[in-house]
Amino acid sequence: MSLHTHLSRRNLLAGAAGTLAFATADRIAAQGGKPNIVFILADDLGFADVSCYGQRDYTTPNIDRLALEGMRFIQAYSNSPDCSATRTALISGRYQYRLPVGLEEPIVPTTPKNIGLPPSHPTLPSVLKKAGYSTTLVGKWHLGFLPDFSPLKSGYDHFFGIYGCCADYLITVLTPHAVATTHTSSMRKRCRSSGTAT
C-alpha cells in the first residue's frame, strides 16, 4: 500500500507556522513568560542602510544578529519625517498631531517651555511597567524640557542620553535647559571630518 500525500504550499506554511508557534512558546516559557523587547528608533535611517536589508557597502553584524534572532519587518510606514513627532507617536501610541508636542518640530530652545509629553499621559513604557517590565531609554528624548518633561516622568525607569536635538555624537554638553549643544571649536581640533548630528 502506497502512502502518497499531496502537500500544498498552504499546508506547508500552516505546518511551519504551527511548529514556529510551539518553538516560540517554549522559548518564552523558558525566559520566565515575558519576551525581551528592544525597540530601535534611528533618525534618518533608510531601508537599505543596514546589511540585513540589503546594504552592501559596509556590514552591520550586530544589527543583523538582532534581526536574525528577533523579528525583522519588511514593510512599514513612517508616520512623520521629523524626530519629535515620530517619538510622540511611538511613546504615546497615538497619532502624533493629537498632542501639542507632536505639532512642534523641531523642539528647540525657543519652543515654549510648556510644550512636551505630559507626564500624566499613558505611554508605552508606563504600560510595560504595569506588566512587570523594567524600562530604559538610551539615546535622545526630544519630547520636552526639564524640569516639567523627562523620560523618568513618562514611564522609563532609567535614562542615558540627551534631552534635546542636534547633538553631535562626538562631543556634547548639556546646557541648563538640557538641550544638547556642541563645542564646535574643540570638535574641529579633535576631528577632521564633520561628525554626525541628530
How would you briefly describe this protein structure?
The chain is mainly alpha-helical and 198 residues long. It is 30% helix and 7% strand. The relative contact order is 0.09.
What does the model show?
The chain is mainly alpha-helical and 198 residues long. It has two domains: 12-76, no CATH class; 80-198, no CATH class. The chain has six helices and four strands, in the order αααααββββα. It has helices spanning 9-30, 61-69, 83-92, 100-103, 124-130, 184-190; strands at 136-140, 158-162, 173-174, 180-181. The chain has a two-stranded parallel ribbon with strand order 1-2. A two-stranded antiparallel sheet has the order 3-4. A hairpin with a 5-residue loop joins strand 3 and strand 4 (180-181). The termini are far apart.
Please name the defining characteristics of this protein.
single chain; 7% strand; mainly alpha; globular; two-stranded antiparallel sheet
Q: Strand sequence of the main sheet, in spatial order?
A: 1-2
Order of helices and strands: HHHHHEEEEH
Largest sheet: 2 strands, parallel
Can you count the beta strands?
4
Low-confidence stretches: 172-198
Portion of residues in helices? 25-40%
Whole-number average pLDDT? 75
Topology:
Layout: H1 9-30, H2 61-69, H3 83-92, H4 100-103, H5 124-130, E1 136-140, E2 158-162, E3 173-174, E4 180-181, H6 184-190
Parallel strand pairs: 1-2
Antiparallel strand pairs: 3-4
